[in-house]
């Protein structure tokens, strides 16, 4: 996998290589006109943002060294797209899914290896909701206000991730109700202590699977006995979002999702936002 860093999707050139071997180049008009490979189809969204998205399936049998398509792509990348990019890469073993080191060609001048290590933090003196209002039989229909309870849960989880004082059980300074009237959703658990674990980087799908497996193993001996959540945030400047929709600022949501697991009830919920702008354009 590969993704450009420190780029703005609406105004900069963005390059992405997904795990399926699809290379996507989201180019501004000037770069596209110099690049040398044409876009087969432009969506209304691309036209509106004056961007051109070139998609190249690198696993295509016709795209191999010596073929016309390969040599054309190679020439364009070496001669017309001369901008310098800061990129992040990740590679995994096809069989085990474990991360592996990349053997870089001699032309690469500078590479920095970044180890993805967990960051642990204990949150104390916080109101922890039980989220009982979310649980319902999967064989029946949820309560009429179920969506509201789900949104309240997502809001609390988000506040916990940023270690907000709004979820504190006790605060040294009262919050002006003109600024915030937030209150954590009741009922609360007896415990007022939680653990926040964060990984940061370009995380391959097998890595996320392994984290989920570890969480489920902790549920068996009741180390996690009430609930736990796992949230994955996608890159904000990725050219595509859910269901292959083109992605721009304020268009077609973000590549984020949350798993909320409740071992006491043996249920789990997957929460994704498509947004009001997730359209067919």
TrEMBL record:
One MF term in the entry's GO annotations: ribonuclease MRP activity
GO biological process entries: endonucleolytic cleavage in ITS1 to separate SSU-rRNA from 5.8S rRNA and LSU-rRNA from tricistronic rRNA transcript (SSU-rRNA, 5.8S rRNA, LSU-rRNA); tRNA 5'-leader removal
InterPro entries listed in its UniProt record: RNase_P_Rpp40
Domain of life (superkingdom): Eukaryota
Annotated GO CC locations: multimeric ribonuclease P complex; ribonuclease MRP complex
Protein name: Ribonuclease P
Organism: Rhizopus microsporus ATCC 52813
Phylogenetic placement of the source organism: Eukaryota, Fungi, Fungi incertae sedis, Mucoromycota, Mucoromycotina
């Amino acid at each position: 996998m590969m993704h450009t860093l420190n780029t703005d999707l609406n105004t900069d050139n963005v390059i992405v290589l997904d795990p399926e071997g699809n290379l996507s180049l989201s180019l501004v008009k000037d770069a596209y006109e110099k690049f040398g490979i044409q876009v087969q189809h432009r969506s209304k969204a691309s036209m509106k943002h004056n961007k051109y998205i070139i998609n190249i399936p690198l696993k295509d049998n016709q795209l191999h060294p010596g073929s016309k398509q390969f040599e054309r792509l190679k020439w364009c990348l070496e001669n017309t797209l001369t901008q310098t990019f800061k990129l992040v890469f990740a590679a995994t073993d096809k069989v085990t899914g474990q991360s592996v080191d990349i053997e870089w060609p001699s032309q690469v001048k500078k590479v920095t290896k970044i180890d993805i290590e967990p960051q642990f933090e204990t949150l104390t003196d916080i109101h922890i909701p039980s989220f009982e209002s979310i649980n319902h039989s999967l064989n029946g229909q949820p309560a009429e206000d179920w969506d509201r309870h789900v949104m309240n849960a997502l809001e609390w989880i988000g506040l916990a991730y940023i270690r907000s004082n709004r979820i504190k059980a006790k605060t040294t300074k009262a919050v002006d109700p003109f600024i915030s009237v937030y209150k954590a959703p009741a009922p609360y658990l007896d415990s007022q202590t939680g653990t926040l674990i964060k990984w940061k980087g370009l995380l391959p799908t097998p890595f996320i699977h392994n984290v989920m497996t570890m969480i489920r193993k902790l549920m068996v001996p009741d180390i996690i006995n009430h609930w736990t959540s796992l949230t994955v945030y996608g890159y904000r400047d990725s050219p595509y979002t859910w269901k292959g929709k083109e992605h721009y600022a304020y268009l077609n949501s973000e590549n984020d999702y949350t798993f909320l697991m409740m071992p006491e009830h043996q249920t789990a919920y997957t929460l994704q936002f498509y947004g009001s702008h997730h359209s067919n354009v």
